């Protein structure tokens, strides 16, 4: 179980982070569906069906107009971007799981993450440092009550400081709670 969960988690993270790293994967999997549309993120399919440019703007005060979806095994993903700019971006990965809160805490939650109360069965938030390619990121991960692991991550452009991601994390938690309510109701 642990090895399968770790493989799913690793695949989930690679699917989400692989959209901007410029590397060609050895197993590209099914093609990514991208859509440029200033009205509907969800038209790209995949995890984008859970997102809407207007709702995202209401939470983050950021205008996205490109949505790209992917799918690999039980994991669906979505990345929102602004035109041709690789960052900022907002990514969402959703994967079915049989994990319980203890497994989620021990096998999925990254070291250094803070627990989040009131989101799914278990949740965390973590803020990451900038890299050479992009600015800092804020990530919210949670185990939904309907057997899914979700990861919502906002990555800033190079010019932002880590404090921006720290300030954004509570807003992403609110957005995650809204997404979770939508997902569980579906």
For this entry, give a set of tags:
186 residues; 8 strands; 8-stranded antiparallel sheet; single chain; 30% strand; 30% helix; alpha+beta
Task: Describe what this molecule looks like in 3D.
The chain is α+β, with helices and mostly antiparallel strands and 186 residues long. The chain has one domain (2-185). It is 30% helix and 30% strand. The chain contains four helices and eight strands; from the N terminus they run αβαβββαββββα. A hairpin with a 2-residue loop joins β3 and β4 (85-96). Residues 1-28 and 32-38 have low confidence and may be disordered.
Which overall shape is indicated by the principal axes computed on the Cα atoms? globular
Structural class: alpha+beta
Q: What is the H/E string? A: HEHEEEHEEEEH
What is the number of beta strands? 8
Number of helices: 4
- Using only C-alpha atoms, the radius of gyration works out to 15 Å
Give a topology summary:
Layout: H1 2-17, E1 33-36, H2 53-60, E2 66-72, E3 75-82, E4 85-96, H3 101-108, E5 114-115, E6 122-128, E7 137-143, E8 148-155, H4 162-185
Antiparallel strand pairs: 1-2, 2-3, 3-4, 4-8, 5-6, 6-7, 7-8
In short:
With 186 residues, the chain is α+β, with helices and mostly antiparallel strands. 30% of the residues lie in helices and 30% in strands. The chain is built from 4 helices and 8 strands.
């Amino acid at each position: 179980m642990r090895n399968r969960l770790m493989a799913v988690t690793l695949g989930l993270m690679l699917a989400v982070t692989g959209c901007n790293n410029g590397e060609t994967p050895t197993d590209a999997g099914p093609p990514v569906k991208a859509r440029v549309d200033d009205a509907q993120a969800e038209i790209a399919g995949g995890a984008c069906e859970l997102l809407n440019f207007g709702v995202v703007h209401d939470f983050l005060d950021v205008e996205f107009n490109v949505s790209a979806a992917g799918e690999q095994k039980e994991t669906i993903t979505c990345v929102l971007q602004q035109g041709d700019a690789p960052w900022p971006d907002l990514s969402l990965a959703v994967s079915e799981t049989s994990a319980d809160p203890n497994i989620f805490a021990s096998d999925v939650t990254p070291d250094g993450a803070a627990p989040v109360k009131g989101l799914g069965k278990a949740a965390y938030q973590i803020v990451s440092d900038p890299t050479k390619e992009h600015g800092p990121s804020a990530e919210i991960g949670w185990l939904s009550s309907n057997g899914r692991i979700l990861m919502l991550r906002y990555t800033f452009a190079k010019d932002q400081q880590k404090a921006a991601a720290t300030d954004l994390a509570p807003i992403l938690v609110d957005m995650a709670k809204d997404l979770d309510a939508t997902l569980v109701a579906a």
